[in-house]
Every structure is written in C-alpha cells, then in structure tokens.
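User: Assemble these into one structure.

Assistant: Restating your components, then the assembled model:
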Amino acid sequence: MNQNNYCVIMAGGVGSRFWPYSRNHRPKQFLDFFGTGRSLLQQTVDRFRPIVPIENILIVTNIMYRDVILEQVPDLRPEQILCEPARRNTAPCIGYAVAHISARTDKANIVVAASDHLILQEDEFHRVITTGLEFVEKNDVLLTLGMKPTRPETGYGYIQKDNGKGIMDNVPDGICKVKTFTEKPNLELAKVFVESGEFLWNSGIFLWNLQAIRRAFRAFQPVIADAFKAGEHMMGSPEEIDYIQRVFPTLPSISVDYGIMEKAQNVFVMEASFGWSDLGTWGSLYSLGDKDENGNVSLKSDALFYNSKGNIVTLEPGKLAVINGLEDCIVAEADGVLLICKQQDEQFIRQMVADVEIKYGGKFN
Amino acid sequence: MNQNNYCVIMAGGVGSRFWPYSRNHRPKQFLDFFGTGRSLLQQTVDRFRPIVPIENILIVTNIMYRDVILEQVPDLRPEQILCEPARRNTAPCIGYAVAHISARTDKANIVVAASDHLILQEDEFHRVITTGLEFVEKNDVLLTLGMKPTRPETGYGYIQKDNGKGIMDNVPDGICKVKTFTEKPNLELAKVFVESGEFLWNSGIFLWNLQAIRRAFRAFQPVIADAFKAGEHMMGSPEEIDYIQRVFPTLPSISVDYGIMEKAQNVFVMEASFGWSDLGTWGSLYSLGDKDENGNVSLKSDALFYNSKGNIVTLEPGKLAVINGLEDCIVAEADGVLLICKQQDEQFIRQMVADVEIKYGGKFN
C-alpha cells in the first residue's frame, strides 16, 4: 500500500429525502440501507482500507455527527474527523482537508469521495482507484471518475469526454481529457448523451496530488486558499478548532465542480464501471433492490404483497408488511413515523417534512 | 338498583378481522379502539354498572383470556369469569351462565350482551335496558333489542316486527312481537328492509328472566339444558371446572338466535336507538370515525394526508402517519406488522392472516 495515499470522505450531508428513515440526527450516510449490518459510511471506509492507510483517512463532517462517526468507525482517531462549523458546499470542505494534509506532508495522493454512495463491485473499484492514484501521483492533473451510464438518468450531472489525451504521454487507457461538465439534463437530452457514447455520469469522486489541488485552489479559489494557508500551521494543534470556527463560515459556499473543475485546464476523467449509485432518491434505491415478480421491493423487512406492484417498502428489520392493492408507492417506517407516498411524488417529501417540522416542532424530524 | 338484575357478557371472540391490530392473544374486545383509555370490554362493563350490581356481572370467555379480563376489570372476582374449554357458539355459552345464576338464585332478570360492541348514547342505553329488564321481570318472554336501522347495512341480520302485541296487556311502547329473524341480506334487500320501516338490526342483546330462559332451553335445547341441570349443583364449587371441561365440549355448537329465538313463540323485540355498532369490520370503524374534509379517518395517532381520501389509519398512539396519494385504504400497524389494504378487499384479510400463519408460524398472529 502506498503510504502517501490519502482519502477525504465527505460526510456532512443532512438530506431529508429519505425521511422518515433518515432524520436530522441520523442522515443517510449513517444508515444501514440494505440491512447488511454496515452503514454507508462504514462501507465507504471499508472500501478504502486496502488502498489508503487508516491513519490517512480524513472525514469532513458537521460537529453534530462527530460522535456517531467515532462510534461507527472506532479505529479512527478523533483528529481524523474534521468538523465544519457551517455548511459551505464541497470546495471549502476539500480546502480544509487539503490544509490538514499539507500540515502533515508535502507529498500526498488524495482521493475525495462521498460517504453515502453505493458501490457494488469493490474489486473493480480498487483497481480503478489504484490506477487513478498512480496516475495523479506522477502528473499535475485533476482527475474525476466518470461512470459509464447504463440508463438516461436525469438525476446526475454528466461529463463529456475529449477524444484526445492532451499533451501528455503515458496516459493509461480509460483516462482522457474532459471537454465539458453538464448540469442534470432533461430526459430527452439524457437519452442523447447516453446514445452518443461521449458522456459519463459525474460521480463526485476526485483524485489529485497534494500540490496539484493546492495550485488549483490558489488559481481559482484564492479566498479559500488564502484562508487555509494562513491557518495551516494550526492544523492538528489546539488552535485549529477556534480558527476553523472563526474563518470557515466566512468562506464562499461553492462546489468544487463549479469552483475548480469547470475552470481548470488540466482536468481528466477516468471512465469506470463498478456498480455505482449516489442513492439520491427512493427511485434509485428501488432500481437497485431485489424485485419480486410484480416489481415489489422490500429492503430490510419481510413483506407479503397481494395485487400490488412496483412498491418499495422499508420497515425496521423483524417487522412484517402485508400489502394489498398498492401500486408504485414508497412505504417507509422508522421511529414512530410511517410514510406512504407515490413514487412519482417523491420530490414532494421535502415539503411534507417541512410541514411536519412546523406542526410538530422537530419531534419527528 | 334492582338486586335481581344480572348481566352476562360474552367475551370469547378471537376475531382476525382487525388483524394486525387484533391478535390471537389480544382480540378486539380487549383493545382500546378509539384511544379513549378503556377497552371495549371495559366500556361494556362500565355501561352495566349503574343497572346491574357488580357481583351479578358474569363474563363468559376462553381460559386464555381469563387473566387479561381480571386485569382489565379488577373489581370482578375470579369466579365471575366463566371459562369455556371449547368454542360452541352462543347457546351453550348462555346455558353455562344461566346454570351459574340458577345455582345462586331462582329469581333473576338477565341481560346478555357482547363484549365488543360500541354504544355511543349511554343514557338512552340505560333507559332501554332498565325498561326491558322491568318488562321481562314480570313476563315470560324472550326479549331482544332491535336497532332502528340508519343505512341498508348488509353486515347485520334483521328482525321483522309484528304489528300486534300478542295476547299480553301492558306492553311498553316500543316493544312488540317478532314476526321473523332474517339472515344478512344483500344490498337490494337491505334497502327494502330499511324503507319498509318494519325491520330492525339484530343487535344480539337479549333480556329475559331466569325461569323464562330455563324453560326455553328445556323446550328447544334439551341437550344443553340437561347437561347444565346435571351440573348445576357444582357451579361455584371446586368441581365446576372439571365438570365443564368434560361436558362443555360435547354440547352442540349452535347460536341462541337459531337454537332458541327463532323457535320460541314468546319472542319480543324492543326497538332502540342508542348509537350502536357491532364494530364488525374496518368499514364500520371507518363509518364511525371523525373524518377530515377528504373523508380520511385516523383513529388513535396523528396523521397528515396529501392527495388522499377515504382512508382509515390506525397506528399506535404517539406515532405519526404521513400519507400521499392513497385512496380508500386501511392502514393499520401494531406489534411489528403493517397492513395496507384496500377497504373493498377487507374480507380478504382473513386469507392474508392465514398466509402469515403458514409462513411465519404464529409469530405475527
């Protein structure tokens, strides 16, 4: 294992999309969605263990999730959990982690990933990440992983490949320059993207070496770069928390995609295919779940279906659902709340959660 | 209060119609359906307290429910709970209670009622029962209560009134002879019944004096009469249980309606109206529940409905249901089972319960 490999796992999300299964105090990354016994965060950490020394794994999160992370991943030391005092999107988050690594070393190959995505083919994931880290170790590039699309998904951004390899030699197969990043397309456009063969799903997994990402921050996000440069000597010291508390909230809220990747010229994409999903919606969970002959999915508990089709059910393990005459619904129960919602109205869940917050003052949020 | 008034409450039902809310170990009569803090059995006992001395209340049930009854009605003495060793419908059940009363007295006015019905207007109920008990105290009649129908219900049997008062004088207003008992009608016939003004719902509430019902048993159910006559001297003694264990299962399984009321000539009906329901179906619960502007009912827990109508929801108190895009369904959750079922398929619940029994071996039954 390359001792210069580092991993930054972003675990600050508070998503309400899986309410009532996810809650403010227990967002998606800390849940065991598929009843495997490991939360998405635990699976993410486990996935990097063969590639990155455990002491080189950093998790960036909100202070309120610090304890649950230490509980779920007990072999992390507390100083490996970086706590954001405010939500400022991914660029300041990554800037903070980069400053932390800079305080320890000047030579690091870094992979950045979300804590709440699903990856089914771990061996292929390991091969891709290892190849990518070796590539970025030797080159001043910003590498992103692009997932070979399997359907015209409208929930993802897309990356358009450039046919050339740029001016570099020895670029491994599967890696090429990026022509453009795109926003989430409508269905028609997504179909064109997939058929063209030129577009990949933007996975939000980034790889680069320490000096390349520092240069990119200095060039495109100087405010963030300067803030962390000024605080770099405090990283890992008792002054770190105070400094971050004071400075972090003043930083611009901007994504690394928009703030750096779309602006830089040395951006490459590595085409990959390892059963990835961002688990962004009930629909994505439904598409991944084992279906009975009528297309019903039960994620964690037993279920009997009668005259029903296309439903996704998640109750607590050990419970039983008996369902008659229901179609295309989400049925989710957790901690005193039962949600029944047509899958097509999934985007409406946020509004329902807001209504519940207003009516019950956080009791069920 | 007339110290000769007795009450027999039948509480042996095991109904699966309200599964998963009702269970084998916790049938309907022991449940607090409306979140009032009192089970249907407790409400039934409470309803008779102003009319019948507490020591004259007998409850006939299955041995497995003895403890829950003593727990729910702690001022009953254990010998007031009569335990049937087998289910033999209502005639042997009532015969057993009559034998018990005969062992204590030769003068009693008895009202027989189910333990799991709902009565909304208690004052009117008290007036009707008191009037009825006074009538049967003085007359050799078998009196049944007929409920003035409010809709063409197909779930009830009907009683057709006779215009005359028979040969008796001094029959109170509202009491008349019975022409016929009918089975549950289809909807068309039920409409005719209701429009005619001659038909009443058969409530299963009976009133008679001790000698009248003993005579009726001797005349129409001699096997049952003889069995309890032979055991009458053991009632209330240590031999009672052994005797009942031995003899009760040998008795014919027959209802008091079919076995006595339809055969006897001295049958009267008292027309009454006190907000009665047998709570026989989810549909009957639905029709009784408070509805929001879209006809949704939540019995015990909070619920928010969106684009939904005509649903009945019962979760445990303190829980919250959030429901979007659901119509005319039953949503019931209890003890690890969630049932979602179209109301029109309610009769199908028995089959589902049987399937669950086969698949999970009683774990959820």
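The interface with chain B takes residues 20, 302, 304, 306-307, 315, 318-326, 329, 331, 333, 336-342, 345, 348, 352, 355-356, 359-360, 364 of chain A (CB under 8 Å).
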